[in-house]
Each structure stands twice: as structure tokens, then as C-alpha cells.
Amino acid sequence: MSSMGLDKDSFLELEESIAGKPGGRWVTPSNNIQLSLLAITLALACGIFGGMWEGFLPNGFFELAAKAETEGAGSMIISTSFIDLSIPQSQIHGAISAAVIVFAWWVTLTALIKWTPGKTRTTAMLGIVTAWIIVVVVRGLSDFVLVEADWAVVWANRVLLVVGQQMTEQMTQAPGSESCIDVSNCYGVNQNWRLWWILYPTFAIFAAAYGTVAEKPWRFLVPFTLVIFVLMVVSWVPSEINFHSEVPITNLTKAMLLSYLVYGASYYYCSISEEYKANRLRTYIALGAVFTFFFAIMIMNPPEFVKDLAILAGGEPAQGMREAIIAGDVVPSTLDKLAGDGIEASQWGGLFVNLIVATAGCVLGFGIGVILAFGRQSDQPFFSVPSVALIELVRSGPLICWLWFAVFLMPDLMDPFYNAEDIMRMLLMFGIFGGCYIAEVLRGGLQAVDSGQKEAALALGLSPFQTKMTVELPNAVRTTLPSIVSVFIGLWKDTTLLFIINILDFFKLAKDLPATDLRFLGNFLEPLYVTAIVFWVFAFYLSRVSMGIEKNLGLVREGGGEAA
Amino acid sequence: MVFERAVARRLVNSLPRVNSPRDFLTGYVVPVLGIYLFWLYCNKFLEMSIGYLSTMARDITIAGTQMNTSYYPMERLALIVGGVILICFLLVQNEMPTLFRGLRRREWNIISECSSSVFAILCFALSYFVVTSALELTPGAQVPFFFFGGAIVAGVLLLQDNLDEILSLSYIRSFNPRENLGAVISVGSIIVLAILTLQISFTPISQDIPFYLSAVILITVLYWGWRLSQEGMKPAVQSKRTAALGYVVFLPFIMYLLLRVLYLQHDPDPVMQNRWMVKFDFMDKVNTFKINPWPMLVEANSDARWLFLKAAIINSARVTLLSIVLCVILGTIVGVTRLSSNKLASTMATVYVEIFRNLPLAVLLFLIATQYGIQAPLFIEERFLFGGAVFYSNQGIWFVTVASYQRLVMGLVALALLRAGLRHMDRIEPRFIVTPNTPFEHLRRPFSSLGWRLEALAADILLIVAAVVFIDYLVPFVSTHGGGTEAAGAMALLVYALSVTSKVDDDGMNSLQIDDSESGLRKRFTIWVAAFAVAAGIAVSKGLSWPLYLKDWDGDGTIDAPGSWDIAEGTGFEITPFFLAMMLGLTLFTASTVAEIVRGSIQALPRGQVEAAISLALNPFQRLRLVILPQALRSMVPLMNNQFMNVWKNSSLAVIVAYSDIFYVVLVMMNNVGKLIPLFILLLITYQAGSLAISLVMNWYNTRVTSVKI
Hints:
Chain A is mainly α. Chain A has helices at about 1-20, 30-50, 60-70, 90-115, 120-150, 150-155, 160-165, 165-175, 195-210, 215-235, 245-270, 275-300, 305-310, 320-325, 335-340, 350-375, 380-395, 400-410, 410-415, 420-445, 450-460, 465-495, 505-515, 525-555, and strands at about 75-80, 85-90. Chain A has 24 helices and 2 strands. The longest helix of chain A has about 30 residues, at about 465-495. Chain A starts with a helix and ends in an 11-residue tail after the last helix. Chain B folds into 3 domains: about 25-275, no CATH class; about 305-380 and about 575-705, MetI-like fold (Orthogonal Bundle), CATH 1.10.3720.10; about 405-540, no CATH class. Chain B contains 26 helices and 10 strands. Chain B has helices at about 1-15, 20-55, 75-95, 95-105, 110-115, 115-135, 140-160, 165, 170-175, 180-200, 210-230, 235-265, 270-275, 305-340, 345-355, 360-375, 405-425, 440-445, 450-480, 485-505, 520-540, 575-605, 605-615, 620-650, 660-675, 675-705; strands at about 60, 65, 385, 390-395, 395-400, 400, 545, 550, 565, 575. In chain B, strand 1 (about 60) and strand 2 (about 65) form a beta hairpin. The termini of chain B are far apart. The interface between A and B is large, with 65 and 82 residues.
């Protein structure tokens, strides 16, 4: 009975927080719960059978499902070797809509029956208004997602959206590629092994970084495994597939096992070592991340000396053996592949480009930002005047202005000594832009460093450079880390601007899918929503990381305040 | 033998110690690699810079016409390049502020204190005279050697840091070469430069100038890098020499940038020259593409580019201003809802903030534009709302509006007058009456002679009059091609009126006693409702303008083809789908950040403040006005300033929805005429001016809000 009482009380509390406190004189503690039950029953009735009073109540479950059926809702078909389900999407849409309508009716009826506007007017009004807004939004969304939209356009092109045109062709049509299905149509030499070579160290660094955070292991391992599982499912589902699915599955499994190993090692090391050793490991992991970024760029399009080294070590450039590879006589070894041509930066595409450009913005930006921040606060005008000038100049224009500058005007300045491709100049520009914003953030952090720290460092005989690197910078970064992460989030979101300069990133490819993929002419909205969701997921994850960092570093301020 | 072994041992001991592989790396590998890379960098950049300089100094005049398009007269070259070197020297030497201060106070002995800077200026003047009038230097070898050698000599002088000493008379008298190697090097470098410049064709240097100059730079950098790492100097001298070393290290890059930009302006390739030449006369010519601005109309092929730019700026400004107003309203509502006790409402507000904060603005804008284009009804479907008051289609939304905007302004003026009157009635005698003393203060308080009762009323009425005048002159400025000077005058008047009202406020003449009780609030509420009704009546006194859907254009009784149906010009108020998408996107995106700012500011209030306010029996309105808002606004305003500047800069994404804003118009102009640098400079200046304007207003408001010390 007490457990029932507990449930009853918490339910009544929930009801009060949503619909307001009961204000009618007929409500007593004894019939409170009975009135709630009455409200729930009436709400269920209105929600499921609502169509009976046409024009007075919104449609209920059966009407909605029937309407969706007539509009031609498809069915979600999940067919594997042992389950064969076919759930009509119209029923799901009807169920979701009816659920929110029941909820809204419950809130309204509770407010009316118990007359909560009498006692807590604002709470009751807010509750009712919000509930009906939720109804409109959820109905519209579920209608669009389940009934109107045809998601096949995105599903069929998922590889294209992630890696871009050139690498999709090589994945699906390259000989020597274990994923090339139709041997007679294969051409080119497969270069996608480079992507996997980038993926392994990235996952390893990621897992190692999480290993240094002293949380329960399952809090990282479970979400991480889920994410890899989702990736595997996306690459394995047989509908609309044009590559051998064993390749991504095996490589993802290898990456997952490697990450587990690295996570375990890092977690164990941090649990048995002192704090300073754990901090040293964190510094090494950060350096490892920077190294992985440069490694990624180098491995995609190796410079000449790497190719020469590979030839010296015994490899033979893979494109020299093209016909043999296509004919299936020769399988190029790793050294052969290293000695061969890479994928030029202009051929990169899809989500990969967004990730590389955002990482460049963050890595290069942090380096440039530190230099500019220290330059700005230097007492030598030769360092401070150009720093201030550069920061104010770059911050005066919007990013799209500077990206345009990087495409059209920077080559005139840079070509004599570095004939770079578009994407490389984009990386540089993102780095400079991010650097100026980080310099502004760090400026506040550097000013807040206790002057006693600097004086103590001076007394200990540290040189100015050593003071800056070991005393001021760590203090400043620690205080301003949430703002720095929010600059990183802004840089990630700003990579969508690359489409204006005709770089084929995820957004541009998704935007042009209805026009380029002739099977799906006219499906404009679905790729856009998927783009929005993909970008949102990464940005949301980064903002959660920032909040976690804030909490870990003890920077959260508790305050009160309740507005009228 | 012993001596040699001692020297060898000293040398070996001074090399970096190797205790671990990491030491080997940092002690040997990194320096060697660094030196090699630095040598490559010096060589490459000096080679390129010297090449450009030679080309630009070559005067190939045949039959009176200049054959070398990259030619610069020596006066300009010497001025620009020498000027940059001089500026760098003066920056490193860091004596200019003291010099100016001393000169202003007419302390002539400051010249002997800042003798190195004065010496540098004199050297520059002397070499300018020598190079332009006295000597004729060969462009192939002498010109580059002189300029670059001069820059390196300047660096050496800065590093030696003994120019002040050398130039003082007492030093010259007691000079001893063997004891003071530094002075020998300083003076010797100048002399060597002069001699080598004149005799360069007889030395092997003229064959490969970059090599020799890079060698000199490398030796200087190595020696002084080693000296500075010993840290045997005073900290002030150490940091100055570090700056000087930075100057020598970056010299090739600085020179390269400068000479490359100069070369591009006179590039043999006419496309490049067109791009980089900073001349704005093309802006006076007619523009060849159409845009859709409002309210100022510009015609393609007949109006100058400056007018198109003005129309684009007006477009950007109006979407920015409207988005700022709407996002503040929406953001405050969402932020406050996030703090409410209704769990459902606060969860929904959190969901809104989390969704829109993490969406990229470009994707959001494109999504809104596409969604609206797909979902809105076609023009010929004649969809009206509220009985003809709103007509919406995929080509725009037309609202019913007032027929006469003057009556609308009169209604607003009536409301403002009511507010001034109510404040006048609420006013009580201030505790201290501050009287102006200086003429400047009299200017800022022109009505002080009227006494405390009437002065603030007069200031309020002045503000209303100034606002009306400003609107009166702003409308022709944004609707027609001219009117700039009158609008500027009206703006000056408005700024003056604002400064008068804030001065009255600051001097404490504005002490109000507001009746906060329930009955007082109810009375005030009724007065304002009545006033709004009267103002609405005035505004619509000349009638409303309903959107008139015309199907029959020639009035002959037959309905024309569906393609020509349209809303009649001048009826209703049009909002184009581009403006709608832009405004919705900017508002939704920025409101999420504003909501977070508002929530953070209110939550940062100490809990005790609100509890004390409640225990003092203040009603919610008083709590808000007297306790919460003053403290929350202090932290909100600087953050809002940032967000408003972001809205202004984010309006450049209008190119995604084909809205004619500044970036879009300038982009198409760039594609048309190819004059990239002038247009880019215009773009940067426009955005910076907008940011500055927003900053000014917000900083003024910030000083108003933080005038009370907490």
C-alpha cells in the first residue's frame, strides 16, 4: 500500500507541475486521485475516438491512421533472415499522433476538472498552451517523417554523402578492391584503404582520451559500441547497396577491438598512476590527436618524399600495374599502394571534407590563437601591433567573406611559394579565422591569470617562453575551455559554408541529390533534414562534452533566481 | 697544446648535453632541421622578393612610353619600401610615444634620449634623397642589395642595441675599438653596406644576392639566438632584442608580402592588375544586373553601382534590425520559460534551445526557404486569411496595412507624449539638484533654467521631436537615391537629444515615484489600454490598405491569363519569401543563444536577492523591475552586444536564399567587373562599420545600465 501511495503522490506531483495546483473547492485530498483518473479516461476517449464529433475535436487514432493510409504511406519493412516484419507506417503515425493528443487532452481536462487556473494561473496556462503546441509540432513532424517523405533518396546515396564522388566510385568500381562487386565494370585503383588507416588512429585517440576520464567503464563502452553498431548496420543493410558489405564490417570490427584495447590500457594506466602521470598522458593524447590530423592529410595525398621512400623500400607504384590489377592477376601490396598516387584534395568530398576542415580549424586555430593571444598582450609593439591588426581585421568580416578571399585572392599571394589546392586554402583560412576567435577568448583567460603565478615563475628563474607555456597558458586554457569548445562548435557548423565555393561537402552533395540522382527527382526536403540532423548530432555531442568538461573542472556556478 | 685542448674542451662542453633520446632530439636534430628549413625559407622568399623589386625598378622607356608595365618610379619605391623598414625599426625600438610626448611638451633634450629613432628617420631621409636624386642605382643588383641590405643593417643595429651609446658625444670621444666590438659592428655594417652598394658589380655578390643576404641573416639569427638563450641580459633589453630578432626572422616574409602586393598592382597580366588595383571609379558606372531591394528602388542598366550598394546595405540593415528585435523578444520569452516551475514548459524551452543552437545557420536557412517554397500555396490559388487581411503564397505574403503612414507616426507620437506626461506626473523633487557649471555641461543640459519639474519634461519632448524629425528625414533617405546629408543632420539632432535625456538622468533629475500597488497598476494598465485604442484609431483614421488581388488588368471585364494575376501595387504590405526565410532563420537561430544568455544572467543572481525581495512583500512586477532586471541586465548587455554583431555578420548568408544583401550584390559585381580588391575592401569596411555602430549603441546602453555601482 505504501508503494502505491508513493506512486500516487509522485504522479500527483507531476500533474501539479504540469497543469497547476487544484483550485476548485470540490477537490479534496481523497477525491484528488479519482478526479485524475476521470481526466485520464476522458482524454483517452477523446484521443482515440475523437473523430466522432467532426469539426469540434481533432481526429483520433483511427481517423488519423486511415487518412495516412489514403495518402499513400509506405510500410517500414525490416526483413532479415529470421525476422520478417512489415509495420505499416500509417499505423505508427496514427499511434504517435494519438499519444500526443491524449496527453494534451489530459492536461487540459485536468486543468478544467480541478480548476487549476483558479490557483496557479500561469502554470495552468503555460501547461495547456505548451501541450497543444507539442501536438501541432509532433503531428506535423510524424506526418512528414512517416507519411509524406521518401527517405530512399538519402539511403541509396549514403556512401556518396559520407565520402564524396571519387571515393564512392573507387569503393564500388575499383579493381583490387574487395568491395568491387561487378568485376567487369571495375576501373581505377582502389584508394579507400587510406580512409581506414585514418579511422584506426582516430578511434584509438578517442578511446584513449575517454580512458583518462575516471568514469565507470560502461558509461563509455556502451554508447561507443552502440554507435559502431549503428554504423555497421548502415553499411550492411542489403537494400540499395552497391559494394561488398564485408569490407566495412570487418574494418569497423577491427577498429572497435583496437579502441577497446586502447581504452582498457589508458584506463588501467590512469587508475594506477599519480595525477601528474595522468596529465602527462593527456598531453601525449592531445599531441597524438594533432599528429593524427597531419597524418590524415599526408596519407590522403602523400608528398613526393613518402612515395620515394616507399619505392626505395621495394614497392612499385600501383597505377603502373593497372591493367594487371583489373585483370585480377596482381594484388597490390601495402608498399605498392603507398608508392602510388593519392587522392588529390580537390577530389575529397562528403562528410569527410567537413570533418577534416573542422579539425583543421580547431587544431591550426588553437595554435594560431595561442600565438596571436600572446602577441597581443606582449609589451613589444612589434608583436602587439600586427597581432591586434590581424585579429581585428579578421573579426571584422563574416566567415563567408574570408572563405571567398581564400578562394580568389589568396592564390595571387600564395601561388609563388605554395601552389595549394582549394581545400588546403580552406583549411588555412578556417585555421586563421578560428585562431582569431580563440585569441579573443584566450585574451580574457590570460588576463585572469593570477599575477602572483607569473611573479613566482620569474623568481624561479623560468624564461619568458617557459613561463608562458607552463604557467600562463595552462591556467588560461583551463578557465576558458568551455568558450574554446563553443568556438570549435561554431567552426564545425560553419563548415557548411564550403558549398558556396563549390566544394562538394556533405551539405552541397545532399542539397544537389534531388537534381543529380535521377531516380529521385523532386525529393528536395529529405536530404536537407538528414543534413540538419547529422550536423546537429555532432554539435550536440560537442556541447555535451563541453558541459562535462565544465563540471569536471569545477567551473559551474550554482545560483538562484526565479523570474516572475 | 694545452691551450688547444682547453679550447676544444670548452667547445665540447658548450654543446647540448645528451642524456636521453629526447635530449638528442631537442638538442641536435631539431636545431639542425630548423636551420635547414630556415635557410630554405630565407633563400626562397628573398629570391622572389628581389626578383619583384628588380622588375619594378627597371625603367624601360622606348620612344617616350614605358615598356615595363611593372615599373614604379624610384620615388614611390623608395618611399614605400623604405617607409615599411623605417616603421618596423621604430616599432621595435619603441621610442616613438616618448618622442611625441617630449616634442609636445617642447622638451628638446628628448631628441638625445631617443637618438636611435631620430637617427633612423634621418637615415631614411638621407637614403631617400640619395637614391632618388643623387645616384642612379642599377635595378638588377644595386637597388635590391641596397634596400634589402639596409633592412638587414637595421636589424643588426636593433640587435646590437648600442646606437644610443654610439651617438652620444661622450662616447665618440672615448672610443676604443678593441674594447667595444659592438660599436665596431654597428658602424661597420653601415659603412660596409654603403661601400658594397656602390661597388657591387665588382664583387661576386651581384651574381647571387639572395644567397649572400640569406647567409648574413642566418649568421645573425644563429648568433643572437644563442646569445638570447644565455639570458645574460636585463629583462627589458632581452625582450627588446627578442623583438629585434623577430624582425630579422620575419624580414623575408614581410618584404615578400609588400613587394608581391606592389607587383600585383602593376602586373603585366591585365586580369591580375584589374583585380588588385585600388581604384573606385568603376563604382560610378551603371550596374548591369537586377536586384530586389526595398524601399529604395534601383534600376539595372541605369543606376550607378554606389546606389546598388546603398540599396544592398539598406536590405541587410532592415533584416538585421528586425531579426534583432524579434530574437530579443523570442529569446527572452524562451529564456524565462526555461526557468519556470512548469516542467512541461521548461522542458519544451530546453528542447527548442538545444535544437536551434546546434543547427548550422546555412542549413537552417536553406531548409526554411525550401520548405516554404514547397508548402506555400501557389499564387493563383488565392489563399486569404482572416477575411482578406493576409494573402499568402509562395511568392510572398501581403498584409493589410494603414493607408497613411503619417497617421501611424502621429499615433506613435501620441503614445510617446502620453508616456512623457505620465512620467511628468510621477516626478518628485530630487534630493540633490545638480546645476551645470562648464559651458559643455550647459550644452548638455539646455533646459536647466526651467527648474526640476519642467526640465525632464522638456528633455523628453525634445527627444520625441528629434525622433519625428529623424523619421521624417530617414524615409526619403532610404526610399530615394539622395537625402544623405539631411538624414545625417537629423541623426546628429537625435544623438544630441539622447545625450540630453541621459545627462538629465545621470544628474539625478529624474527621480520617479511609481505607484506599484495592485490598484495603481490596474489604473496604469487601463490608461495605457485606452491610449493604445486612441492611437490605433488615429493610425487607421485614413483607412486601411487591403491587398487587392487583380485578375483583370486592363479593366475590360474579362479575366486575364492566370500568369498575369497580381496584387496591385501600393496595396497591402509585401513580404518577399526571401526576406521571410532570412528573418525566420536568423531569429530562430539567434533566439536560442539569447535565451541561454537571459537564463544564465537570471540564474547568476544570488539566490538571496530574490528571496529577500519575496520576504519584503514585493509583488512579481516590483521584483522584476527593482531587483532582478537591474542586476541581470549588467551581465546580459555585453553578451547581447556580441550576439547582435553576430546577427549582422550572419546576414551575409543571404546569398543562400537569394536575398539581395551586401555580400550577394558585391559578389555579383565581382563576377561582373573582376575588380576584386576594391570590392573586398568595401565589403570589409561595410561590415566593420555596421559592427561599430551596433557596438556604440550597446556600449552607450551598457553605461546607462551599469551607472549604479553594485
